[in-house]
Amino acid sequence: MNMMRKLSNDPIAGVAVQQKPEQLGVFKTPECSATIWQRQAMPNFQAWLDTLSSDNLPSTRQILQPQNVQAALCDVCDAVGLTDDPHRQHLIRDISALAHLFCDLMDAPFVRLRLDRITTNACRKFHVDAISARLVCTYRGTGTQYGVSVNDAEPADVFTVSTYSPILLRGTLWPAQPETGLLHRSPPIEGSGETRLVLVLDPIYEMHEER
Predict the structure, then answer these.
(1) Residue 158 — φ and ψ, nearest 5°?
(2) Which of 84, 162, 201, 207 has a CA-to-CA distance to 94 between 20 and 30 Å?
(3) pTM, rounded to two decimals
């Protein structure tokens, strides 16, 4: 665990907080239960995204090769009437870059891409996903929350990932070495008037895997 504490500014041992994308390979080390790429959006881009009408926020669920993500997102943005400007282009390029990075890290030829507009308490219970690994990046609104469960109880201390900072999470199909008790959830926002825009990426190794 010493390596994780040295790498991480996070109060939970085993959660590595990195400043550069090339450092995300630490996710594959046995002691690491999650990795956060700590980054911040340009203020003008974030202000643009935060003030968009929810009807203009892109939303889609597709299985794609990473090289096809950019073109697919252009079609999705066109479908919701999102004007083609530098901010839209940045959003598309950033999601495409994350898809490439994640597929390279996981040695996956395809990615299940989910871009969701969220206004409810989706996945509000702390849990571990029934997958091998997942990347979550909240582009608008409150980020993913996480904490450590002791004796199957809800985490006593809850931490929130910064907006625009991707978090890599291990699922139940990735054997824990050792078991950390790390759980995560979507923040409860129902009734707050908040609209989140959340990207979720899962590795896909065969196209016949369930969608």
Answers:
(1) -115, 130
(2) 207
(3) 0.90
Residue 3 — φ and ψ, nearest 5°? -60, -40
β-pairing verdict for 34-37 and 167-170: antiparallel
Span 25-52, pLDDT tens digits: 999 988 888 999 999 999 999 999 999 9
Mention every residue, 6+ apart, whose C-beta is less than 8 A from residue 161: 36, 136, 138, 143, 144, 145, 146, 167
Query: What's the rounded Cα separation, in Å, for the pair 99 and 137?
Result: 11
pLDDT at 13: 64
Q: What is the mean pLDDT of the chain?
A: 88
3-state secondary structure the chain: CHHHHHHCCCCCCCEEEECCHHHHHHHHCCCCCEEEECCCCCHHHHHHHHCCCHHHCCCEEEEECHHHHHHHHHHHHHHCCCCCCHHHHHHHHHHHHHHHHHHHHHCCCEEEEEEEEECCCCCCCCECCCCCEEEEEEEECCCCEEEECCCCCCCCCCEECCCCCCEEEECCCCCCCCCCCEEEECCCCCCCCCCEEEEEEEEECCCCCCC
